[in-house]
Design brief:
alpha/beta; Rossmann fold; 34 helices; seven-stranded mixed beta sheet; 920 residues; seven-stranded parallel beta sheet; 7 domains
Amino acid sequence: MNRKIVEDLLIKHAADNSCVFVFPTQTACELWADRIILINGVKSVATQRFVAWDEFKGSCVRGVTQDKKAIPATLRKIFVHMLIDKNAREHFFSSLIPAEYAEGATNFAPWISSLLPSLAQWKRHAQKAGITPDQEDKDLEKLYILYKDFLDSRNLFEPAWETPPLKEDGNKYFIFFPEILMDWGEYKDILESGKNITIVKVPQIEEEEKPACHFFANSREELRSLALYLRKAHEEKGIPWNKIAVSVPDMETYAPYIEREFSLYMIPCVKRNGSPLTQSGAGNFFLQAQQCASSNFSFDSLKAMLLNNELPWKEKELNEQLIVFGQKNNCLCSYEYKQKKTDVWEEAFRQDGKEVRLFNFYKKLKQDISNFVNADSFKKIRTQYFILRNDFFNMESCPVFSDFIMSRCISELSSLIDLEDEYPDCTVKNTYSFFTEYLKDKMYVMQTQEMGVQVLPYRLSAAAPFDLQAVIDSSQASLQITYRQLGFLNDVKREALGFKEDPNVSDLFISLYKLCSGHDAYFSAASKTFSGYGISHAFFKEENHISTEKNYVPFGISETDDFYAGEKNWMLQKENSSFPPQISSIEKNGFASWKKNQCEKAHPADGSALAEGIPRDRLKELVESKYFRQGIPVISSTALTNFYNCPRSFLFEKILQLNEKDNEAELMDPFAMGNLYHKILEFFCKELSSRQLPLTAPDSKLSEEYTEILRKSTMDAIETFRVSPLAKQLILTTKEALLQTMTLTVAAFCSKFEGCKVVESEAEYSYKNDNPEYICTGKIDCLLKNEDEAEFILVDFKSTDNAVHKDTFYASEDVPVPNFQMPVYMNLLAKSEHPKNVENCTFFSISSHKTFGVTGSLVCKEDIDFLPTMERVNFLMQDFCTRIKNLDFSIKDFDIDFNTCRSCAYKAVCRRTFNVAGEE
């Protein structure tokens, strides 16, 4: 069996201009039109004589008495939207659209639209079966009547509802392989009755003629074998690359692997799978604009649109500036509180008061997008689009592909406008939403001048005359195709209507691939696929190529065919292997690229040359700008902690300020609430200090006076707290809960330090050291004085217990780098302009109300010698000065463990290696 059946019929009737040839797909139409020119010796044929099934059934199928226009598919969808809107008011459906979903049933529209062509078939079988109608049947009957009234009132007809006899139009139609079509059952009766119709069915294949399926262990081996098979067919049989088709059931999963494998074996290929217009960045703009308007210009929606680089933005720098502004000001989303709507962007701009140009840019963008999305007709949508385009797009710099996509989208919009003009009474409630849903259903196939193997979705090229047809992933699951007639009904009801078996056309498609392939069609499958496991389809004769040999060479492929395997075997000095006579262009280019990018010398393992790419003078300038004051090093506990955690990380983060690009906005900074707690405690402590009041909480409760002080401190802290308007509003709405939390915290704090007086809160200190010369700075949280003992107590507030590093309070052999905070603060207080000898230091946890004593008899249960820790910290402070003066950020003297490196944000840049179990 071969494609000569089709060729003979085409040759026989090619000269008769009244003969029209109908094929399942447009791809088959175009290729058979080209084929007839080649085999019949004619110079040209009329392309309108080669018609795809979808075009044929819309323009040619009508009954004898029918003198109406076929309903456009889009108008069918508009009817359903109108119907859903009407049902929301009148509730005449109870099964198709349950009453509880009637108000927002737009999502039912695609499903109901798909029912309409099948309603006549359902009605005929229901009447014939004589079943008692239930509520679902009543709803379907209602839908049928409403749709029929809609068609009749507009002089339209539904092609799938037509009944014999077929109206003749003077043409003779040859319909090829219609039984593989999903909706053939709806048109079968009327078309088979037509005197001017010839049905060409898929010939039946005898058992001995069934094709073989090459079965492999895994999909990678399957694709490698396919590539080698195609190369061999091209080189030995002279089959042009563009005359080969590879059909793929799961294009989304397999396409990247196919492209890679074909690239490795230098096989040019062109993907011919269509994708929705909205899948590209340019087409997705229409959805992004809708999302912006519907979310009141939330940060995420605005960011997605403004950072869409497939759009020809006029001023991209303003786009980026707006995103940065939103990120810094936490413009997460707009909100409504007490019936007052607040645009978080506008509020942030008003508070900032500086970015006037950016504010105007945002207001204009918001206005154009809102007018665009809220337009109440398709014509107005187009008008607003061009206004928006003129304001924000530079079409002269538009990428070619984006221009094609956007032009196609506007072309589709124009077709909706034509319908709107022709049927002015047919309108939808949400015009723009209908437009975007319409675009999602429109497929776009990238047009290219490149020639190569055609990679197509399975089924698309089954009836097309390629010289070689190949189908991969020919598993039972992938090739199984069953059409459920009246699939919207359950199986019990379908069986009652006479649909006991659904047409299984899997074998027909396989047979068709074999029939239309000039050379033997190639089918393959794999046991282990990219997404699971598989077995070859039952229709095939299986040829098993699974081998237990480690270095297996595919069937019919010699070592010279697979040049990669030949090279590998020679490199491994395999027996009978020879030096490769040639290398591929990919290998050549790869080697040239590798050679070009090789460094002249390797970096030392200690990382001392890590900044070698930065001029030393520039690095010195950066260090001095951040950690020097008038040529003198400046030290803080934070700088020491960061440096001795890892000097290399310190260089990246604090000196070079390398940051991973982050375009996300948050409601609040992760440390915002901790900072707010600190601010409340600061105001509370300062108020006590100004009134000369001691810390006190009788029975662990605050007095009315102290409670009022805390309430005022809380409100003052919220008022001065710098967060986004939305975050501040949320804090204000929960201020009572916040006050309750802080009341417990402050009561515990006062109870722990009963009778102590606040000396200072959030006070900044500094001192200058002479040998070596450096300046030490810092800010203490709270300094108390116990009047009874005449001793100072230094308290540092921590939000949680986890922020207190108890294991590193004291220096020892196991802790060479202790916690710097308290030793540095003690130095600051002791060596400042007005020295204070602090005997006691402790941390206080805001969340758990616990204290963690570091030194001093008033806060520690045990008497601990803190002098070695102070001496060690003083040594490290001197060491830090020496290292930053010498620009020494090497890690050779540091014991940095694997866990530290694993959690480091700069590990991808640093690339430090560890030996684990003897392996690097």
